[in-house]
Amino acid sequence: MRDQEPAPGHPERRLTTKETAESLGVKPDTVYAYVSRGQLSSRREPGGRGSTFDAKEVEALARRNRRESSGSSGSGGELSVRTRITLIDKDRYYFRGVDATELAARHSYEEIAEWLWTGELRPGITFTAPKAAVAVARRAVDALPEHTGPTDRLRVAAIAAATADPLRFDLSEDAVLGTARILIPTLVAALPPVRRAHRDAGPLAHRLWARLSGRSADEPSLRVLDTALGLLVDHDLAASTLAVRVAASARAHPYAAVSSGLGVLEGPLHGAASGLAHRLLLDVLDQGDAAPVIADELRAGRRIPGLGHRLYPGEDPRARALFALLKELPGAGPALAAARDIVATTARHTPLHANVDLALAVFTVSSGMPSTAGETIFAVARTAGWIAHALEEYGERPLRMRPSGHYVGPRPPQPLPE
What we know:
Elements (H helix, E strand, L loop, with lengths): L13 E3 H8 L3 H9 L5 E3 L6 E4 H15 L16 E4 L2 E4 L2 E2 H7 L2 H10 L12 H12 L7 H14 L9 H18 L13 H6 L9 H13 L7 H11 L4 H12 L7 H15 L2 H10 L17 H10 L6 H15 L8 H11 L6 H22 L24
Antiparallel strand pairs: 1-3, 2-3, 4-5, 5-6
Helix pairs in contact: 4-10, 5-10, 5-18, 6-7, 6-8, 7-8, 7-12, 8-18, 10-15, 10-18, 11-12, 11-18, 12-18, 13-14, 13-16, 13-17, 15-17, 16-17
């Protein structure tokens, strides 16, 4: 069908849904996603069966998409991606415009995840996993070597759960949301429990506790864990989140997109950073003084874990929120004192604030958890944010996350190697 002719007095040119989709390089369903997000306006013509779109508006959106695809931005050419999920600004951060620390203080992890995905709060919601998916994921995880780390276990669980879902390639919003609500509890249920007496029911934080600590959970500890999950749900375009968006741009299904994020998360500068802070904290507790421990780290040329954050010149708001709760946690006193000693001792060399990794370390040390527990908490929490970003990316033009390489090798033609 050709463009509709403009009516007298209405010089704008109108495009059909099919023509709009072709201009943007997306599916027709994505065109209506643009409309629902306010990026395009539509109009039904009298007697017409479908919506029409202003050609100039469509072309403007196509130009914005092309600029994003080429990595153009107003910040020195760094990749910039439009998002409605998280804003980080002036030592604070916001989920859909709402202060994230206030959300985490008042709502459960599952409620915050729903807010991130849909913009709606569903009080009291809990996520449950189908038994078949859990059984497949557990068998796969149980087959791994005993020394396997938590992120590897979660990645294997995600891949195994995918094989049990024949409809995983349905990328419609409702289907992806349904996947998200079963994938997260499946990941938790697939982890081997530390305590035998546990139930895979109730809030996710309660189920996760049994995978992290052999101690019985008290309400203050569960509150810290649930708050930590809520605080860590998302943090804008962190490295793992960018990997998820690249996978979603190539239309990988949600399980594969989450697996991409888990692969990046395992690095010591990302999700595993809390484990380094955990071990540092144990060394300080063992020595009774942070000075010799910090001196050894500096002598070895290592960065002090748990301190500073490139996005927060001042305090990390996530750390501030967790430390406030940790002060009320029975038995956290020694670890809190050690953390303060680390900050004060390092300040003689470089004045840095404690970040969320040090706060997580105080919690995991105080709760008798292994050094990998913080990484597990981080990975489970961030899965919800990855799903939110995948959902957003599925509504964009496919394969737009394709930067061009800047070749600096020898210029051709070169002789064949012998």
